[in-house]
Specification:
CATH superfamily: Rhodopsin 7-helix transmembrane proteins
Radius of gyration: 22 Å
Distance between the termini: 33 Å
Transmembrane segments: 31-53, 74-95, 115-139, 160-187, 193-214
Strand content: under 5%
Number of helices: 8
CATH architecture: Up-down Bundle
CATH class: Mainly Alpha
Structural class: mainly alpha
Keywords: Membrane, Transmembrane, Transmembrane helix
Organism: Steinernema glaseri
Protein name: G_PROTEIN_RECEP_F1_2 domain-containing protein
CATH topology: Rhopdopsin 7-helix transmembrane proteins
Oligomer: single chain
Helix content: over 70%
Number of domains: 1
Length: 243
């Protein structure tokens, strides 16, 4: 997720440079393009990463024994797939680069319209695909919470974190992305003209909220186990006191 947080800073700051430093306009085109290409490539992998995260929880709930044996392989497959998509999109944007106008400071003016449309359509497609995946996860989680397996606090914590992430993704990513495509291609209304890059702003809000949530919930969950492990090592006992 780190590139997704860092990359927007350069394009946003580059938009203001031509007005503050007019003599650097040509340099700013390179800044906008190269920072934007990293950002756009990262954006294309966000939905894919969400999908793998949800599938991971579905597999953990549905096939716990097999999942325990195969989870490392699943992580490798997910990482390889995300990296491949990132690299492919990055390469396409290198090929689809065009010469912008002198005062074009939007990243979309530095690549072909075909490439810009593809980015929007693929993001919308991944968002749509994430809907049934999320529904399956909600159903599986509901059954899981009713079963005896809910005594596994570690799995329950991870499941609830992903559940909250899915809710955030629906509110801040899936609904706005699909709504933007419908408004643009069906009703010929471009909200970005009046609101600016609101899709990017909502996506950044979603990613920031997920980072804070993962940090608070998972670190809080691991801390008692770390304290328990240190207590066992210090005392040499096999049973730790209740925390």
């Amino acid at each position: 997720m780190t590139p997704i947080f860092v990359c927007p800073v350069s394009p946003i700051s580059a938009y203001f440079f031509p007005f503050v430093f007019p003599s650097t306009i040509e340099v700013n085109h390179n800044l906008i393009y190269w920072s934007g290409i990293w950002y756009a490539s990262s954006i294309m992998t966000t939905g894919l990463a969400d999908m793998f995260n949800t599938i991971d929880r579905v597999l953990a709930i549905s096939y716990p024994v097999r999942y325990a044996a195969q989870k490392k392989r699943f992580v490798l497959v997910a990482f390889a797939s995300i990296s491949a998509v990132f690299g492919f999109v990055f390469f396409l944007m290198l090929v689809e680069r065009i010469e912008p106008g002198r005062y074009d400071v939007m990243f979309g003016r530095h690549i072909t319209y075909r490439m810009s449309s593809m980015i929007m359509m693929v993001n919308a497609g991944v968002a749509l695909f994430n809907v049934p995946v999320a529904v399956v996860f909600f159903c599986k989680l509901r059954k899981f919470n009713k079963s005896l397996l809910r005594s596994n606090k570690s799995a329950s914590t991870a499941n609830m974190v992903v559940l909250h992430q899915m809710i955030l993704s629906i509110v801040f990513w899936i609904v706005p992305t699909i709504g933007n495509i419908i408004a643009l291609y069906v009703f010929k209304v471009n909200f970005s003209v009046a609101l600016g890059p609101y899709i990017v702003t909502l996506l950044m809000t979603y990613l920031m909220a997920c980072s804070i949530m993962y940090r608070r919930k998972l670190v809080r969950h691991r801390k008692p186990h770390a304290v328990q492990s240190l207590w066992l090592k210090a005392t040499g006992r096999n049973v730790a006191p209740s925390l």
